[in-house]
Design a protein that fits this description.
alpha+beta; Jelly Rolls; six-stranded antiparallel beta sheet; three-stranded antiparallel beta sheet; 6 helices; 11 strands
Length: 285
């Protein structure tokens, strides 16, 4: 079983064929059916984000909500001390904690776009849930981005990490529920600092209000923030995961279960090399 999606939410697709320059493996060829148009990929590179409105059907929204609620109820490693800067409840390593999230390991609507941007060999980076409730204080985030490793000055052979993050919303994004703000093109600001504790509006920001089941795909360096939930709103549940080249280190956050579902999955005798790449144990030397 895998997580279903609305094909009607995807305006077009195209195919890429990669030939890997690896003589030891016979120059393998990898074909990718990209669930996006070439124009959308170009816009994501330019703007740093892509919206997929109404990607999940109602039955999948309900199933993933139930899986997230169930996992939070029995987890002993919840993160709740983010304060105003990163409010709400965070739960990490969801693919190791519930089979519904492991089903998204090779989820085509996002994985195919990651391969169009980053190449054929990518790894799933983390799988986090976040829950915000309107009656609790500090249910927002400050302006931030995720790949905070660029030095000043930039060395001539510095390898900048490009990653793709996915924000998959299981509840409506409204003014009461706390919409998402992004600054288009900010992922290219390699020479500009972003201080901590910034909550003010930014020049050129875009406020995204979306129905439940929508996804926002962002470059890992895109400036973004979540506005606070308001009285009269509802719970806001978010799944946050991403992709990076298979040779990039995994996320540092959370405590990974010692014998979680991904570890057990890797023991299967029929596991493919492509799946091993997605789990971060192949695709590099």
């Amino acid at each position: 079983m895998s997580v279903a999606y609305h094909d009607s939410a995807i305006p077009g697709r195209h195919t890429l064929t990669y030939r890997i320059r690896d003589a030891h493996r016979g120059f393998p060829v990898r074909q990718v059916d990209v669930l996006a148009t070439p124009e959308e990929i170009a816009a994501l590179v330019r703007d740093g984000y892509l919206v997929r409105e109404g990607l999940l059907p109602p039955e999948e929204i309900a199933r993933l909500r139930a899986a997230l609620d169930e996992t939070i109820a029995r987890d002993r490693h919840l993160e709740t001390q983010g304060g105003k800067s990163f409010g709400g409840v965070f739960i990490r390593h969801l693919m190791d904690k519930h089979p519904a999230f492991l089903e998204m390991l090779d989820w085509a609507p996002t994985l195919s776009i990651a391969r169009a941007l980053l190449g054929p060999s990518v790894e799933v980076r983390g799988f986090t849930g976040r829950v915000c409730r309107p009656d609790d204080p500090n249910q927002e985030t400050e302006w931030h981005f995720h790949q905070r490793v660029i030095p000043d000055p930039v060395p001539p052979l510095f390898s900048r990490p490009h990653t793709l993050d996915v924000l998959l919303y299981l509840d409506d994004l409204t003014d009461l529920n706390g919409p998402l703000c992004v600054v288009p093109g900010s992922h290219r600001r390699t020479d500009r600092d972003l201080p901590t504790g910034v909550f003010d509006d930014q020049p050129g920001q875009v406020v995204l209000r979306l129905p439940a089941g929508s996804a926002v795909l962002t470059h890992g360096s895109l400036w973004h923030r979540a506005l606070p939930t308001q009285p009269g709103g509802t719970m806001r549940r978010l799944l946050l995961f991403g992709y990076g080249p298979s040779w990039l280190k995994a996320s540092i956050y959370g405590e990974k279960p010692k014998d979680g579902l991904t570890t057990q999955f890797l023991r299967r005798p029929d596991i493919s090399e492509e799946t091993r790449e997605l789990l971060g144990v192949s695709g590099y030397m």
